[in-house]
# Entry
Amino acid sequence: MKHTISILVKNEAGILSSVCDLFSTRGYNIESLTVAATIDSVYSRITIVTTGDDVVIEQICKQLNRLINTIKVVELPKSAEKCIDRELILCKVSAKDDVRSEILRISEIFGAKIIDVSPDTYTLEYSGDNRQVMAIIALLRPLGIKEIVRSGMVAITRENQFINLNK
Amino acid sequence: MTAEQLNKTEKMTGAKIFLECLRKEGVDKIFGYPGGVILHIYDELYKCDYIKHYLVRHEQAAVHAAEGYARITGKPGVVLVTSGPGACNTITGIANAYYDSYPLVVFTGQVDSKLIGNDAFQESDIVGITRTCCKHNYLVKNISDLPRVIKESFHIARTGKPGPVVVSLPKDVLTSKMDFEYPDKISLPGYNPTYEGHPIQCRRALKVMCEAQRPVIISGGGVIHSEAWREIRELAKQLNIPVATTLMGIGTYPQGDELSLGMLGMHGNYWANLAVSNCDVLFAVGTRFNDRITGCLKRFCKDAQVIHVDIDPCSISKNVHVDIPIVGDAKNVLNVMINEFKTGKYSYNVEMRKIWVKQIDSWKEKKVIRAVESMAMSPQSVIEHIYNKTKDKKAIIATEVGQHQMWTAQLYKFTQPRQLITSGGLGTMGFGFPAAIGAQIAAPDRLVFNIAGDGSIQMNIQELMTCVDYKIPVKIAVINNGYLGMVRQWQEKLFDKHYSQTHISSPDYVKLAEAYGVLGIRITKDEEIDSALDRAIAYNGPVIMDFVVEPFEMVYPWVLAGKPLNEVILSNSESGLGE
# Structure
């Protein structure tokens, strides 16, 4: 089962290593990881997608909380009503004459952008939730994906829920 | 000029600031070893009259000694070493303190910050290396961070679940200058240990314990950290519940008391293991349910309700499913429960408790059978003699790791906390002797014994010279059986007596003692034991006693690794391999 964990950390050298070391020494998986400064550059947000049963996830969250430089650790709700997640992908697709129009059609249906064009390729920029991203990849794959770069998931809670400093 | 005046008027070097910070933290003893990049601190130390530095012979021993010091005083032990090899040699000591949760602050030199990452001479990434074996670590990049980092390090080391903190000090931080001011406040928004247990949980726990028919308390090392031994005794007496201790919790409940079950676990008492296996409510305080005390996890307390008090939320439901978790400091939690019980709203069935205690007493009749009948001295009897000779002297006993450690835990009737110093979690051979040195430094008036194996003692025997230099009168009792006994025991039982690389030879300890300038005594017969111990205790200085004992003795009771706690082997004739 996939879980998304949002971690607010002090923006210091070594904190990312501490978080990653914790996953590797305790044998937990990291499916994706993103990190960037928050609005206050003293702090960074790390978003990790991991897999495991509830007991494992609870243990991961506790272990992350135990690190001195983590300010707040929250497992984000899985329901789309409470939490929005997005991933950005850049996808370079082989654009031979016979498929060029199909690529454009898919791109239009999903609301993706063509950000680079060459005689042989289109490069698409697309962001969506995990299901949408997997769907567009599935449709583009048979047309010939030459390269794909995924940002990993970021997520935010809806409405009046915040994950900030008050631990 | 006082230190206060100095602070305001003169810029200080990082090296000087370092020592001033230690002074502010009340540090007066440090363990260390000098080297290239840390020389500026040693130069300041040369002029310093408020810190006594103990020069060891190996950096690993400095860390163990600091831990021994911390175990006796409850204060963080402080270590100072150089970069590269000096720093790397501290790793085992740091990991040992981390596993057993004792507070240390380990300062390691580092190459000039401009050289970091260039593979400079004696450079090692100690922050990277220690990341998974210490509570927290720092690389100080700027002198302006130095006082804050030191203040935070001591705070982190001694609060919450205590542990070692590592601080890497680049040379240029020690040589640059600034105005010194020690911060009075600490701001660590990500570090807020929970000290107060949730009162509703405490009341729930108390209710369940009162309703229990066959309750057992497990008292672990956390009871020592929280100094909650009086409280655990009071609660046990109030509720009339038998108490087993873990290896780390030995001394938190006096052995010999009618409710004492002694140690549980792999080599714990038969009746303690059976009591825990058959209980209906388990109240565990300050233990992380290590595999050495649970045996087969699936069958550990499988019908019992488990109540777990620990300051570290990670320990709860990590290994054993917990029904009533209480995160908090043991002392606070126990006090809440004790006071709650005093309200008179709770009661338990006295008759039921009597039946339970009687049941446990019936298990006590089953005795361990010694493995070997021989003319040679038995190692167990040596430990019993040591106990008899030292029991009235409030002796501190430090052990190494192996058979002698388990025999000591079983046969020495510890009655006080902080009386046994032993490496529980990491199981570090070579820990006991330097830890005994640190303990003796912390308690100069007490009798300190290091019960060692012939394998373990040779791991840090160079520290004899440290004992001589500082007149540290540690009494070493080597239980010399010519084998790495515990490993040999496993080979005998589980590997068809293939004694692969476990026969280990020793130097002539009496001659070795002479070479170091300490007293050496060899003991080969039972009748010599008492007089040798008398002589060692009376001798004003370090002593090494070489007890030449039967090599093929076994530590029983023994629950084989992975087996449930109630499958206990008590003699050579049982295979223990069970169904």
In short: DSSP finds four helices and nine strands in chain A. The interface with chain B takes residues 9-10, 13-14, 17-18, 21-22, 25, 55, 58-59, 62-63, 65-72, 165, 167 of chain A (CB under 8 Å). Chain A has two domains: 2-75, 84-154. Residues 2-75 of chain A form a domain with the Alpha-Beta Plaits fold (CATH 3.30.70.260).
